[in-house]
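Researcher: I'm comparing several assemblies side by side, and this is the next one on my list. It has 584 residues spread over two chains. Same procedure as the others: predict the full complex and return the structure.
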Amino acid sequence: MASLKIQGRLWVLQRNGELISDIDTDMIFHNQYLAITDIAKMGQYAFDNLEGFKDFAKLAKPGDIVLAGDNFGSGSSRQQAVDCFTSLGVKAVIARSYGAIYKRNAINSAFPVITMPDAKASDFSHLETVVLDMEKGLLRDRKVEPMSGVQKDIFFAGGLFQYAETLKK
Amino acid sequence: MGRTLIQKIISKHGGGECAGGDVVWMDIDNRSARDFAGANVVGNLEKYGGDSPIADPEKTFFTFDCNVPANTIPYATNQHRIRLYAREQHLKVWDVNAGIGSHVVIEEGLAKPGTTTIGTDSHLNIMGAVGAFGQGMGDVDTAFAFKSGKIWFQVPESVKVTLKGMPAPGTEAKDVALAMLREFGSHTLLGKSVEVQGEWLDQAELSDCITFASLGTELGAIIILLPPNQKVLDAFSMKREEAVYADDDAVYEKEYTLDITGLTPLLAAPPNPHNVHAVSEYADTKVDGVFIGSCTNGSYADMAYAAKLLKGRKVADGVMLKVVPATRTTWMRLLHEGLLADLFDAGAIVSNAGCGGCASGQIGMTGSGEVQISTSNRNFTGKQGKGDTYLAGIGTAAASAVLGRIASVNELEEV
């Protein structure tokens, strides 16, 4: 069963000591790969258009967690920008804020997106191993917003439509 | 603590004692998809819907309004895919002859005060006109609503805007909506539920409320919610206690006052809806085309006003006037009451009901350099063609069509 308490390496997406903001869906999963529909094949292109992190897909390990600044996932509504992380086994994204459509897509596909309104790059070392508790709302010893009830319902069901099936029982 | 209108509507629909920021499951009374994105909704249901893809066929329907009848093969194919699916699942389709889905749903009395409606139309928050919840959603969420009768939603923060005073004669609902865009732009009200009240709204007709609320999307708001006045209640044969209102001591994140005393006609110049100016500033601009219609200004009252202004007058040489009533019901009234003849005799091209100028080419597009006055809600580059689109009310549109240059309705009365 999926767990709300996970441990993994933390990718601190930073530039000049600041968390990178406005990472849009073209930086996460470029539109040249949009024809790909097999989730297994999406991971290799994650962040391959994000300056400084183009080797992310090669270096990422299952269980990793990503930390970014404001407005993560702004731009288009492409689902691949969420699924490419699932493809690599990345367990969660934490950001100061999200593009509205991205957040909705991620929640609907049971991928944990966690909001950390006062996230700072200097609070963490790049690739340090951290514990993320999405129930209590803690990243190591720092506060994050816990998952909402709705987000938990969908997360444990494994997706929005899987949740709909649970409603009928 | 008093509660706002959106909080009370969501609570009434299974959302609990919710506050702004809470993420809740809410029940949806009307679950709809249009020809745009509707085929993707069907695709999602076929893929993920399982054995019982539709929770309640009585509350679930399709509305075709974007490209009616279809003038591209992809649209025709998608519409037919929807029809076949609807037949199989016993769902109602308001087909290519019905008109704009949001207006049909109001006309049919389905979206009445206090109800909830979702669908794939980004202007479905127009339901705020009648003190109801409406929201445009993507094809995944819409399919989920078809299947479960629910959506999840983050309760927006509520703000309140009080409109002070009354506009000048010859100023209409669209001008008041444009005054909101001039004041607030597209960021100030971003993500908010905006409750609006004031003397002008207390006496506004249902069609005025629809026009006013339809610009909520352009303001960046989740919804503009208008507490139903007596005229709106009458339109649904409802009593005040059957509708939902905010508590008197409701707490708002912020309260604003906008003075509309003596407001004169406005327009939104290219390239966006919040580039708002007085019509008089553009009085010398030659006009090539005029579009009257859309979910913003396509109601019967709007069409009747246009017909009244154009009766016995002629569209200027070299100007195309395109008129698209929002619904078939409106169209029929115009026909039987003889108002269609007034429009036609003035020189108008009148098309079948639908989204008209806002949808890809239903009643033609503008070419490069062409100047168009449109009563719709978006003038982004490319939306209605390559030309320069100015958004304005019915009076400005009709006057500009007759005079062949941008003009306000008061100038028309001098002709």
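Model: For your comparison table: Chain B has a mean pLDDT of 95.
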